[in-house]
Amino acid sequence: MGNLNTTMIEKYRNSFLHEVEANVEEGEWVKMCMQCGVCSGSCPLGPHWDHPPQELFMMIRAGKREEVLTSSSMWMCTSCYNCIVRCPRELPITHIMHGLAHYAKRLGLVPENQQTEKFAQLFWDNLTNTGRVNELKLGLKLYFMNGFGEGIKMSLKMQDVGLNMLKTGRMSPFELLGGHSIKDKTGFHAMLQKAKELEDAKIAKHGA
Amino acid sequence: MAKKEYSFYPGCSSQKAASSSNYQVSVDSMCNELDIQLNTIPDWNCCSASIGYAGGGELPRIALSARNLALSEQANPGQDVVATCAACWLATKETKERLHEDDGLMEETNQALSAAGLNVKADQKVRHMVEVLIEDFGYDELGKHVKKPLDGIKIAGYVGCQTNRPFGIDGESFENPKYLDKLVETMGAEPIEKYEKKVQCCGGALAFSEPEKSQAMIKDIIEAAYDGGADMIATPCPVCQMNVEVYQNHINKKYNTKFKMPVVYYSQLMSVAYGKNYKESGLNGQVITPEKLSIIAKK
Amino acid sequence: MADTKIGAYICKGCGLGERLDTDKLESIASGEGKAAICRQEEFLCQQSTVDKIQADIDNEGINRVVIGACSRRAKFEAFNFESTCVSRVNLREGVIWVRPDTEEAKEATQEMAEDYIRMGCTEVKFMSPPSASQEQSVNKHLLVVGGGITGMTSAIEASKAGYQVSIIEKTSQLGGVAGQLHRKVPSRMPYASPQDNGIDDLNNQISANSNITVYLNSTTTKTSGAPGRFSVDITTESGSTTTENFGAIIQASGFTPYDANKLPEFAYGKTPDVVDQLGLEKLAQEANGTPIKRPSDGKVVENVMFIQCAGQRSDKEDHLSYCSGHCCSTSIKQAMYFKESNPNCDAAVLYTDLRTPGAGGEDFYRSAQRKGVTFTKGIAKEVVAGDNQHTIKFTDLILNDEVDLAVDMVVLATGMLPNSGVNIDAPPAEEGSVEIPVESILNLDYRQGKDMPQLVHGFTDSHFICFPYETRRTGIYTAGPVRRPMDINQAIDDATGAAMKAIQAIENSALGKAAHPRSGDLSFPSFRMEGCTQCKRCTVECPFGAINEDEKGYPSYNESRCRRCGTCMGACPVRVISFENYSVDSVGQQIKAVNVPIPDEDDENAVAKPRILTLACENDAYPALDMAGMNRIQHSAYVRIIPVRCLGSVNTIWVTDALNSGYDGVVLLGCQKGENYQCHFVKGSEIAHYRMSKVNDTLTTLNLEKERVATYEVAITDIQRIPQLIDDMAKTIEDIGTSPLKF
């Protein structure tokens, strides 16, 4: 991944914008931002972003590659879609944020210990394993994702939630034993593998 | 009215012993009353919701929903795809739109699908259950089935994010959608007209990774319901339901509040109003029991 | 007056019959009002009843009609009897709709109605039907001063409508600034790319058009006369002069670019790589579609930044305070020159507020973004000229960064200065100061100065809210950036509008009709010269320069320049100026016709009911009062309201007479004055306010409190406020007591 990052820097030098346009989901929209700031003002977690979307767009245009990709900002997106529906220029901001986050991860630039990044990866691994989310395993993995000690603490803290879910039949210990799954796991995995290959190839081409 | 059939995409959280299994129970009861037949897409998979983006790139994520659409086309040809979960609906509908906007993406997606022996056209409509209720039945028809009006219950209609944005229910505004209030009214309950946090984000998946930030927002959502005089909150979204219901103890501890606000699904309100019992309405799945609704259900 | 025969007609519809004692009104009209025919009707405005009035006019010799019904602003068509003077007594909006329908209120409401009937009957006695003077002349020849895109467009548009046009252009060719542009901002869908500047096409149209005459290298050295009969001296560079007659004039004298030499901080003049927008047009023309090269060394530009608002929208000395309107779109267009000829060139626009007015502005902006032009919100502080590259130092307002950016070229978006000639209102130069002579554009032979009056920042005055093309010199219309900052597309629209106004002026002057806002009015002021004291107030105060002075100092009136506002009538201290249907008497006698109650002589403590006179401008204040009536907003029953053409037409004698007759207060309602004036006659309200500031002397002489006269600026939207102002006066009178002058 580090190598890919180096390749990208070489390729685009002064034009991070072009890099984003080529490699980031919906990245070709970034140049259309008119800097009104409605997205930033509409974001429910706005105050927690180091750089709200509008600013990220300007930073991309200003070539601040490292600052953008190593930022924790886009990982603050809750996917509430407020920004999308309010953007006067109709930029798919939520998708661009997801795209930036994914691209940063692909290049190995995510800040260490980024909680949403960790959870999002757990979620992906969980769902791609059997084709369906196993909520119990996902929950346990989540509690323990910051280490064993943290995990025990977390489990204790979340005990009430777990018990309540068990009591109301919205969670079952049997899920630990296999649990829900699709039938055609082989075809499913082959499909995801193919999709990943196609996407990797495209980005590698831009980096070449 | 004649029986209506749809290709149904239930989603992970609706499965047995999963976090919104009570939603599914009430949806089944509601559909039973309305003579709706839900033909489940065979071997459906997770849509990856809106949090799959770290591990999954654009194409793998699109492929997930495309697989469901392809399976639906095979098994339930010509039927609209209907989802009850906001995230499932959103991901699937977005995929359909993206595939039609971008020929290259359609081609790559089908390349990926062919590895699973599938092919997608993505021509069916992708609809939320609420759209089916409002558009294919209408409030008047829905009201005709009411056997036990929910008299005297004040309900804060919490629409949340993903059933409302970016698509929303046709004809509704993003800032102040009215359909949930109208449904509540149709069932004989009283909507909180000025529920200030109607479309506030609950944090979504970030309730797991950023619990404190999310719980601060959830606190506001519950507080506003109390401010409006609500007996309970009703929502169309499994993530909203879970986030707003299950962390109230934590919020009470942190903010020194005394929240005990029940959070139910619109389909539970409808099941009870349609005369279904406590269990059929999935009320045994509530962490915080909605007392007034339970009394009517048990009558 | 001997041959006046009044018909008074009182309507009982719309609730008037129930609320008022119409029998009493009828008896007042026939008794005090001396109406020869007097009738009450259930619905006065229905056609059969209107026909009966017409029959009275045709068969009974009625030549003055009093309509006691609704406001003069309602049912205008129904009660418009040709060649007959009509007084509309406003019993509906002005009386029953502003009064409560209660037993206690009944008496005062009835008194109001009775007074208004008296006033109406009096007014018509002092009116005669207006007819045009005999000084009309027709001249279908239009003069356009300035041969830029505005002037060329005006000329073509007017010729298409069948008028002869002459264009006078100072330089040796037509085209003006637009002709110097490589391309212009697009005027058509999809507003995506710069388009041809259009001058060649206009040139071809003009040279092929036998109705258009072009005078190059020429200026106007004298303009005299009036609409319909302007006489203009056209002088060529070599000094030869011809005199031509015109019906109307369009001044399209354009703008001068701001002198970028005043911006040394941006290195203008220090390196040829810093240019203004016109400078860049020249480079683009030279490049003609190939990559633009920088002037210093001919290197292809890889990197250019546009600095918006250079020397404008700034309060620094020597900078322009205003926005020039076109520069953002122009920079977007010029950035496209770079991108289109060399996609690898980085073109960035540094702006604080990007403004792209007009239908296509936003589309054009988006198109530039799609083409890869970068837009950066920030403030340029300095440009440092270097040997190889130049450095722009700016503050990025989004990222809150101080940035040093190396570029090959810098383009300064500077502003526009109007070519409006001599500022006729400028205060005289201080002694010892060096006056820079300004060349006049029109050289008007008008008493009030050589050029068009200016409003702000040197742009020529026009009533930009209600009638944007109208100016303060009837028959002379300014168009294009001399009127206000604007872009080419706006200038083309403006040119077309001005051509239409000029045509209208030609046609109106042929019939002796007034221009806006009293369009079609045939009445005009006449001057009883034997009473004139040559005081010159009318010639000075006329907002439209309609009155010159003859060699003896008497007013010399030019009918077709006049807008019939009556400001001259208000100005005249000896009251020798009057209109046929609007005069010192037609209003003054109404004031005297009102029944001002006097206190009971036998009772020492008796207080008479007060009376308030309100003179309300017919353009905004009176309509606002009508709307207050429609909204049933009540006001005092003691007020008697008379509409006036403009507050400027108010002669102070009316105020003095009212106070002398025992009125307790006078309220004057005019339009907003000053820089953001709303006065339909530009200066009328301002002049009236000035005159009323002098009325204190009169009040002192009469031993009256100064609070008894109040003058207000109101707007047509003040439907709540105006009734309140009237009630405020009623309250003031309650506080200070009624007038002692009631006999």
Explain what the structure shows:
The complex is a heterotrimer of chains A (208), B (299) and C (743). Chain A has 208 residues and is mainly alpha-helical. Chain A is built from 12 helices and no strands. Chain A folds into 2 domains: 106 residues, Fumarate Reductase Iron-sulfur Protein, Chain B, domain 2 (Orthogonal Bundle); 81 residues, no CATH class. In chain A, 60% of the residues lie in helices and 0% in strands. The longest helix of chain A is centred in the C-terminal third of the chain and has 23 residues. The model of chain A has no long low-confidence stretch (mean pLDDT 92). Chain B is an alpha/beta fold and 299 residues long. Chain B has 2 domains: 126 residues, Glutathione S-transferase Yfyf (Class Pi), Chain A, domain 2; 152 residues, Rossmann fold. Chain B is built from 13 helices and 8 strands. In chain B, the strands form 2 sheets. A 4-stranded parallel β-sheet of chain B has the order 2-1-3-4. Chain B has a 4-stranded parallel β-sheet with strand order 6-5-7-8, sandwiched between helices. In chain B, strand 1, helix 1 and strand 2 form a beta-alpha-beta unit. The two termini of chain B are 28 Å apart. By secondary structure, chain C is of the alpha/beta class. Chain C folds into 5 domains: 129 residues, 3-Layer(aba) Sandwich (Rossmann fold); 201 residues, FAD/NAD(P)-binding domain (3-Layer(bba) Sandwich), CATH 3.50.50; 158 residues, FAD/NAD(P)-binding domain; 40 residues, Alpha-Beta Plaits (2-Layer Sandwich); 148 residues, Rossmann fold (3-Layer(aba) Sandwich), CATH 3.40.50. Chain C has a 7-stranded mixed β-sheet. Chain C has a 5-stranded parallel β-sheet with strand order 7-6-5-11-21, with helices on one face. A 4-stranded parallel β-sheet of chain C has the order 2-1-3-4, sandwiched between helices. Chain C is elongated and about 100 Å long. The model of chain C has no long low-confidence stretch (mean pLDDT 95). Classes of the chains: A mainly alpha (208), B alpha/beta (299), C alpha/beta (743).
